[in-house]
Structures are given as C-alpha cells and as structure tokens.
From TrEMBL:
Domain of life, per lineage: Bacteria
Annotated protein name in UniProt: DUF4328 domain-containing protein
Biased composition range(s): Gly residues: 321-353
Pfam families: DUF4328
The keyword Transmembrane helix belongs to this UniProt entry's keyword annotation: yes
Stretches that traverse the bilayer: 116-145, 165-190, 249-269, 281-302
Region ranges (Disordered): 313-353
Length: 353
C-alpha cells in the first residue's frame, strides 16, 4: 500500500513496508494503521523502491500523523476529481452493491396470429376464385380464336374486341389479386416467424430479410422459403419430430405451379399468330389449376402453423398467475418448449433436410 511519509521540511513518497498490510477490500481510507514500530527501529534509511534515500526517521508518532494527513489529502483529491464516494473520508473501499435482481422477467408473450392467418386464407381463396374465373375466360377465348382460325369471317369485329377486352381484363384482375395474396401470406409469415423466434431463438437457418428475398433471388428461391417455413413449423410444433408431408407436397406444387405460370406467360407474349394464341390460353388453364392446388395446400400450411402457435399461447395463458408469473415451473407455452428446450433450438435435434 502506498503511503506518504512527512519529514521536517521534506516530503518523500515511499513504501511503508508493513509486514502485514490490510486487504484492499477491508481498509478504510480515513483510518489507515500506522507503520510498525519494528520497521522504524530496524534503522531502515529508505524504502528499496524509493528513487532517492530519505533521512533516518526517529519519531514513529510523527510518521503516524504524517501518514494519516497524507491519506486525507489523497482521499480529498480523488473524491474531487473522480466524483466517487468510495474515496471520501469514512467510506469503505468496497465495490458498489449489485442491484436487487428479484424475480426474473416474464417471458416475451407470443403475438396472436389468427387474425393475419384469416387475412391470408381469405386472400388465397379470393385468388383461387379469380383463377377459376380466369380459367373459364381462357377457355372461352381459346374457343373464339378457334372459330377465327376455321373461318375468320364467322366472327365479327365486335366479338373480337369484346374477347380481347375481357381476356386482358381478367389477366389484370388475376395479377392484382395474386399480389394481394402474396402480401397477405408474407404478413402472416413474418408474424409466425417472430413467434417462432421466441419459441426457438436458435432454430432458424436464415435471417428475417430472407423471408422476402428468399422468394426473389434466383437459384436459392428453390429451397430457402421451404427451409424458412420448415423451421417455423419445427419451432411451433409441440412434438419433437413433427410431420412435414403437407409442407413437402405444398412446396412441390408451388414450384410446379410457378413453372407453369412462367411458361404460360412466355407463350402468351411470344404468340405471333392465332394458333399460338389459342395454345397459350389453354396452357394458362393448366397453370391456373396447378396454382389452385398450391393455394389449397398453402391454406393447410397456414392452418397447421397457426393452430400450433395458438396452442402455445393458450398454454402460456393458462400457466400464468394473475400476477404474471408462472404458477408452477415453466409453462408449456413459454420459451423453452418441451422439457426446457424448444424444438429446433441449439443443442436439440434439427430436422434432417
């Protein structure tokens, strides 16, 4: 411990060299013990660490008073320039006490998903209905084109203009409703992903931006969205190995339907005659049927994940006391899942795909 020795007309900063210095956590700045008399009687002329020798000390009492005065000056200086009360007179140099921890904060509640799920399902149903109407219009327009191929004079100009207008208007409505369904599905996907991150914080292979970019970036859009939905289902399910047959069939139907839609659009824009135009209209019916199958399966996916997360919310609400704390242990709907670890969390089993 560094101390200050005051001598007559001379101030020397030395090490007192006590045999048993007090521990830093148990010393009080204003009550530092004096150097031992044995040290002074031993005839030490200076501290070995001092840069220059000090005169031989003969008055232990004077050293005691000098040490205390030096400690008071040092404590005043530190308190003035650091603002810390631990260096002030009479305060022990203990670390500040830790704040009272109390009970741990309650787990983050899951957000309701039934509302956005209904919105997504209604949008998919509307898209399917518009698709059915568009398929009927495609068949009617293809029949009109066939009549024109057989006998151009058998179709009037008014019928041709009406067919072009209705066929184009159906395509516009189909595109608008499809975009609304996409937005509704993404809103639902973001909501269930947020809840899945609460249930299983480490059970997701892709970050949130990929919930949008995963559908648009070439190559990776063949499997990134499927992995995102699988991770959400794995975190939301209340069993260790949930079945994924519906998800696999839905994703296959989606890929095939998307491929059919792209082919139909290319045939329509590349048709430079009546026969290619009729073929494009008929192939558009095939793509619509494929997308209808994918939409029905997507509704099943939405329902399964939504029901699983709503069960977690119901279990969490039932396991809470009026004060907001679990009534006994961890509720089954709180983060931690079954057995203290949510499915898909680090350390647990991850789906092999």
């Amino acid at each position: 411990m560094r101390n200050v020795s005051w001598h007559s007309r001379h101030v020397e900063s030395t090490w007192c060299g006590w045999a048993t210095p007090p521990a830093p956590r148990h010393c009080v700045v204003a009550a530092v013990p004096a150097p031992s008399v044995a040290y002074v009687k031993a005839g030490f002329t200076h501290c070995p660490l001092s840069p220059r020798p000090s005169p031989k000390v003969q008055n232990p009492g004077f050293i005691t008073r000098g040490c205390r005065i030096g400690q008071l000056i040092l404590s005043w200086f530190l308190a003035r320039h650091t603002g810390s009360s631990r260096f002030r007179k009479g305060h022990a140099m203990y670390p500040p006490p830790l704040p009272y921890q109390g009970y741990p904060p309650p787990p983050t509640p899951l957000r309701p998903v039934r509302g956005v799920a209904i919105f997504a399902v209604v949008a998919l149903v509307c898209d399917s209905l518009i698709g059915i109407v568009a398929a009927v219009i495609d068949l009617w327009y293809a029949s009109l084109v066939d009549h024109m191929i057989v006998d151009l004079d058998s179709v009037s100009e008014a019928e041709i203009d009406t067919g072009d207008f209705v066929y184009g208007l159906s395509g516009i409505f189909e595109t608008v409703v499809y975009l609304v369904a996409v937005v509704a599905f993404l809103v639902w996907l973001f909501r269930v992903r947020a809840n899945a991150e609460i249930l299983s914080p480490g059970g997701h292979r892709h970050s949130r931006p990929w919930l949008i970019f995963g559908w648009m970036v070439p190559i990776v859009n063949f499997w990134f969205p499927k992995q995102i939905v699988d991770d959400i289902w794995y975190a939301s399910s209340r069993v260790s190995s949930p079945p994924r047959g519906l998800f696999n069939v839905w994703w296959a139907a989606w890929l095939i339907g998307t491929w059919g839609t792209n082919v139909a659009v290319r045939l329509l824009f590349n048709s430079d005659g009546l026969e290619p135009l009729a073929a494009a209209a008929r192939f558009d019916v095939v793509s619509i049927v494929l997308m209808l199958i994918a939409a029905v399966l997507a509704i099943g996916v939405i329902r399964k994940i939504t029901e699983a997360q709503e069960e977690h919310r119901s279990a969490a609400a039932a396991g809470m006391t009026p004060g907001g704390m679990p009534s006994g242990g961890m509720a089954s709907g709180t983060p931690g899942g079954i057995g203290g670890m949510a499915p898909g969390a680090p350390g647990g089993d991850h789906p092999g795909y």
